[in-house]
Amino acid sequence: MSDGEEATNHLLDGTLHESQASVQAAEGGLQSESARLPVTIGATVPTGFEQTAADEVREKLGSACRISKDRGKIYFDISVESLAQVHSLRSVDNLFVVVQEFKDYQFKSTKEEVLKDFEDLAGKLSWSDPLKVWEMNSSFKKKKTKRKKINQNSNKGKTDNGQGDKKDERDVKKELTGSASETQILDYYENPAIREEISTLVGDDLASCKDEADERSKEEADASVLRFRVTCNRAGEKHCFTSNEAARDFGGAVQEHFKWKADMTSFDVEVLLNIHDNEVLVGIALTEESLHRRNITHFGPTTLRSTLAYGMLRLCAPQPTDIIIDPMCGTGAIPIEGATEWSNCFHIAGDNNALAVNRAANNIASLLTKSQIKEGSPSWGLPIDTVQWDICSLPLRTGSVDIIVTDMPFGKRMGSKKRNWNLYPACLREMSRVCRPGTGRAVLLTQDKKCFTKALSGMGHVWRKVHTVWVNIGGLHAAVYLLKRTPQAFVHPSEQDGERGTPWCE
Ligand SMILES: C[S@@+](CC[C@H](N)C(=O)[O-])C[C@H]1O[C@@H](n2cnc3c(N)ncnc32)[C@H](O)[C@@H]1O
């Protein structure tokens, strides 16, 4: 019996379904032999935050990470008993188990030969252990949440991964896959660093809509057969084939090998074929929905991913009792992530837009309700408050804040580049007033780097730039600046002139 057949039989005979897996876990957990199964996990992370994610993995799982050349990915080894902890990581978007990795794959010279090799590969891989991991993972995997098609901000169909660059979801999907019904693809590859060709195809080009409907009803009659799809993600100049062709031919061979059913939209197993220059990796997805989808239920026009919010917070190493503010909080993605992860600090979420403050308050309320339902008892609440304020004149005492983490208007979707020329210097000045001299720090995200750099250049006496992380926010090249507050006391400019004015910006 081949490795693949053995794995399939094992799956079909045994604990295929989530409910069964949960019962198994409750009845004494995973078999000790299986629990020790070594496994290589791959994770997609916000670009630029690979090192932050590696630090989190080392801290929480004790595993060293390898950061991929292909930006936005990390790899680490665990034993399978740590799978639940892997799903609790805050810096990772999607997870997969590595079936096999080829660091220097030798592509043949013609397309036909390359595609034939992909077909042959399906039968040669050691699927058995990764499939066991996939099976055990089902009890930890969060189910995909159904999102409303229409949202109140006329952001209908927009992706929510960044600022100012939202494409219509349908266009993105068309661009990526040529299929208008493939919502899952965005989840996996919302990560804009992975701007390469992506195709999800299964078997042949067999699945016409009509055939799919016929297939579905047959499958319902035979629920024991696993459904699968292959997603190919290809980047590199020198390939003589498309991701579409690779997914089709590799997918066809996987189908033949396992006798699984192909299904693009409703599948049990998602096989990943990642090709980056001459590196090829085959994996099995362990997340159905990106792990950044947490905390937020009331979205705004530029809601930040929770994984990116976590990375920004982590950059300034919050300490117990720190006062942490996001003075331009929008929906509150940063302070809410902060309050859930650093609950020994106090977080303040402020914005000058009443709608934004309202959304942030609603997000906090939803989170509290969720945790009350989960725990079955009233919650003590979260260490967070919301307030409507203007960043240019904050109702906070001078030197009273330890950390400022904020995502500034890029001047595209939010605000304007012209307004930033006044706003940015005013922000930096008022932030320098409230931030504690000597120990205070700020982590600021912006795409308007020119304006930011100019504003900062006049403030070297109060802010010192210690680090810049380059990130890709929905295709925009943005920067996260880590600033340290110098020990110099804040002097109000009007005091320097011998008079006291109030607002900093018009
Ligand atoms: C890029 S958005 C923040 C998005 C937020 N991180 C989220 O996840 O929703 C910038 C925010 O700055 C706010 N803002 C702009 N000018 C402001 C000011 N003078 N004072 C306070 N907030 C301001 C906007 O209302 C907007 O919500």
The radius of gyration over CA amounts to 25 Å
Helix content range: 25-40%
Distance between the termini: 76 Å
Structural class assignment: alpha/beta
Poorly predicted regions are 1-30, 149-195, 202-209, 499-506
Please give the number of β-strands. 16
Count of runs of 4 or more consecutive helical residues: 17
Bound molecules: S-adenosylmethionine
Which CATH class of one domain is shown? Alpha Beta
Strand content: 15-25%
Approximate shape: elongated
Would you tell me the overall average pLDDT? 81
CATH topology of one domain: Rossmann fold
Question: Could you name the CATH homologous superfamily of one domain?
Answer: Vaccinia Virus protein VP39
Largest β sheet strand count, sense and barrel closure: 9 strands, mixed
Task: Label the CATH architecture of one domain.
Answer: 3-Layer(aba) Sandwich
EC number: 2.1.1.256
Enzyme class: transferase
Protein name: tRNA (guanine(6)-N(2))-methyltransferase THUMP3
Organism: Oryctolagus cuniculus (Rabbit)
